[in-house]
Amino acid sequence: MASELANPLPKRWIPRFFTIWTGQAFSLLGSQLVQFALIWWLTKRSGSGTVLAIASLVGLVPHVVLGPLVGTLVDRWNRRVTMIVADSITALAIVVLAALFAFGQVQIWHIYVLMFIRSVAGAFHSNSMMASTSLMVPKEHLARIQGLNQMLWGGMSVFSAPLGALLLEVLPLQGILAIDVGTALLAIVPLFFISVPQPAKAASTERGQGKTGFWQDFVSGLRYVWGWPGLLLICLMAMQINFLLNPAFALLPLVVTKHFNGQAIQLATLESLSGIGVIAGGLLLSAWGGFKRRILTAMAGVIGMGIGCLIMGILPPSAFTLAVAAMFFIGFFNPITNGPLLAAVQAAVAPEMQGRVFSLISSLAAATSPIGLLIAGPVSDKFGVQAWFIVGGIVTVLMGISAFFIPAVMRFEDGRGENPPVEAPATSAPVVQPDYT
User: Fold this and answer.
1) Rounded to an integer, what distance in angstroms lies between the CA atom of residue 245 and that of residue 2?
2) CA 270 and chain centroid, separation
3) What's the CA angle centered on 97, arms 96 and 100, to 5 degrees?
4) Of 240, 254, 250, which Cα lies nearest the Cα of 367?
5) Which residues of 265-296 are buried (b: 16+ CB within 10 A; e: fewer)?
6) Which of 15, 36, 286, 373 is most deeply packed, by most CB within 10 A?
């Protein structure tokens, strides 16, 4: 009975899933355009680094602090309804802000409020979509789907900023906000007509069977991760990578100006090549699917990113061309790391626990970035701006290599002894189609 209530995977899953996926892709583009436009407006309006820092914190802190609680609610609620409500709240907030811009009444604190709402609603939406994917896509195709996701995010990083700058030249800001409302509708409307499978436990809970309390579910999620050594180690690895690598790329402007004696065009070149690398890596992963054991692909990606960071740290000032190649290399291995790892978690973790697990991983990983930034600044001031790249690269490479000798990590995909996941065939045909780090 539980499986019936959970709406098992339909045979024709491709049109159902990709109809939703395409709407989400357009919505992501609209969100990226609005993010660029609002940050530029804050920059022009205030000229204050403090204002920009507060804007970043307002968007980050709710995700970090509320993430584990959000994941618990996602596992308790109907995920399709959760996505509809989350997207609708974001769209409504955008409409209100567009009206304030249109009437010339907008203030900086209005932007903060919007970013807070987007962060909270986005946490509900992203966790619901991530946790639902494993119930909508056959396990053998999860790595390819994650490859396409990584390629999408890489493409956004390359094209959204130039497109946003172009739109700012021809549209008022409320016009760009209206585009975001339109793309949000493209994400919402398909959800009214396409069912999203529910985990068996969640479906039973909706019928009043075996209902548990919120805090019971929250604690059970923590125990689930703590009691699974492989999953716990993956959480710790995600935290370590964010602690080391995110601050390194935050220091990239200083590497360009102080080490390579470059200007804005050199910085833009490095960032663009990194985004192009993400697209290339995502394209390869979506076509190839990775090794039979997804965790092997992910750890190879970790080593690749670490090597790229180490190269960035040891290059002489005259080797800017090699720095461009290194950034492409790092970007290329980013989806090779993230895609298979997310797919492995989707395949191995029980569907009714995925909201809690994904939110816990992302919250813990995101929480280490500010700590790393606080340490990386003084370290770079004392030992040179490239020092953090060298340290981050070495530690990341060693972490990736050591994972091959840790059975709990290598056998993570075997699950906890309940239902081992189906492994992806190495030569399957590709399917037509965002931080753990």
Assistant:
1) 43
2) 21
3) 90
4) 240
5) ebbebbbbbbbbbbbbbbbbbbebbbbebbbb
6) 286
For 358-385, the DSSP string reads HHHHHHHHHHHHHHHHHHHHHHHHHH-T
> For 290-348, what is each residue's pLDDT tens digit?
888 889 999 999 999 999 999 999 999 999 999 999 999 999 999 899 888 888 888 88
* Planar angle of CA 269, 275, 277, nearest 5 degrees: 100
The mean of the pLDDT values for the chain is: 81
Distinct helix (H) and strand (E) counts, the chain: 17, 0
Residue 377, classified by CB atoms within 10 Å of its CB into exposed (0-12), middle (13-18) or buried (19+), is middle
Would you say 155 and 296 are in contact if contact means Cβ atoms under 8 Å apart? Answer: no
Domains recognised in the chain with CATH numbers = 2-206 (1.20.1250.20), 214-414 (1.20.1250.20)
Tens digit of each residue's pLDDT (9 = 90 or more) over 345-392: 888 888 778 878 877 887 887 778 778 877 877 877 788 778 888 989
DSSP single-letter state for residue 415 = T
Residue showing tokens 């394209």: 283
3-state SS of 326-350 is: HHHHHHHHHHHHHHHHHHHHHHHCC
How is residue 12 written in tokens?
């024709």
pLDDT, tens digit (0-9, with 9 covering 90-100), for 51-69: 776 777 787 777 777 777 8
Q: Phi and psi of 353, rounded to 5°? A: -110, -5
